[in-house]
Amino acid sequence: MATVSTSEFRNGLKVMIDGDPFTIVDNEMVKPGKGQAFNRVKLRGLISGRTLERTFKSGESIERADVHEEEYQYSYSDGDLFYFMHPESFEQIGADKAAMGEAEQWLKGQEICLVTLWNGNPISITPPNFVVLQITETDPGLRGDTSSGGGKPATLETGAVVRVPLFVPENEVIKVDTRTGEYVSRVKE
Amino acid sequence: MDSSLLQERATFIRAIRSFFFEQDVIEVETPVLSSAATTDPQIDSFVTTSRGRDAEGPERLYLQCSPELFMKRLLAEGSGPIFQLGPSFRAGEISPLHNPEFMMLEWYRPGYTMEQLMDEVEALVSNFVDLPSIERITVAEAFEVVGVADLYSTTIEQLQSAALAMALPSAEEMDLDWDGWVDYLMVLAIIPRFSHAAIFFTHYPASQAALARISPDNPKVAERFELILNGMEIANGFCELTDGAEQRNRFQQELSERSAAGLEAVPMDEKFLQALDHGLPDCSGVALGVERLMMLSMGKEQISEVMPFSINQV
What we know:
By secondary structure, chain A is an all-beta fold.
């Protein structure tokens, strides 16, 4: 079991708390003038997403989480699991809906995603920052309206719904920022 | 680096020097390197080696975590009131409020009580920070503020229950001794409660006396104080322990705590203990983190913002 001392705590370090992997999002050493120092730590659950606060005696060691990130290409879903392939080893892994989270709505296949693995199992999927998808359904816009304000909902081929400017028609291919879920531009094919 | 920083620091340091010059406190310089290190288990000293003076091989030397012991040797030789401004070193202490090398202002006043020294600390600090008068409360009174009555009769379990009742982080799984719980409640409950106040905490538990004397009026407390401004520790002072035998016992106690915690053994300062045996005059002394006071004075949140080169730039 790999352990890590409070002196090595830094943001982004992955550690085990009550049997689940967490990432450190804030670490502050607090010290009375003399006497025991403590590390006051905020952590985010890599599976649950919940944030919690813990305090450790400075110098204490805790278990490190065997968590790393790797790029995989999204292949397909059988409705239950979402399958990804390693671009070099061609090894295939399956992620469940919980691990897919928001990523599901942006992926149609072939995208290179960042997969977070804990003990070799995918626990979260980060889609590419930008994806290019076709609009399958949206209300016709007002002709001649080129303003970017306002906008209307548009359903994409993956099922995601984003707000697009009024002038963007159905069947148009658009670029979306997956971090914000916002329309970026039209894509000329 | 902000170009005005050097000017501000220089003005600040000059003001400290003139404050003591006007009080006829003389400035001294004592070594950074010593053959002895602090025995305090919570402080990790930097160590370096020098080619030995004889055939015994390299000599280990420790960078001083404060000039306290050297300054007390000067006092024992009859120096009278002295102050020092200079670098102090503590390995591994890095945070928005900590830099492993920092400037300490330390001064000693023969014949002063702890209260008289606190008056002087307040006078000095008022030159740099716009303060109302600084409130003085004992550590036991501070614990009453967060609902812990009669601190010195509490058990470990009672202190832990108080932490649980306040829903403090990890209160349930913390494994601490009585002093550890006092420290825990201090940094997680009490100091945050006074985060917008100017306050002297006085009369620490006798078990946390460090180099302070035990109060002649109450054996449960030590004549030790800390100045906390806006939740930040600025200074720590003592009515100094002058009893060499008791000081040796405390050092030995700390060395056994170090060994129990698996920390490196360090040589205790025998020359300092000899000076105490020779006779340290009754005095009070205080150490003040100069950069912390600069942070408050200049309105900065990070110690690195008031240093030309912080640890990340060296």
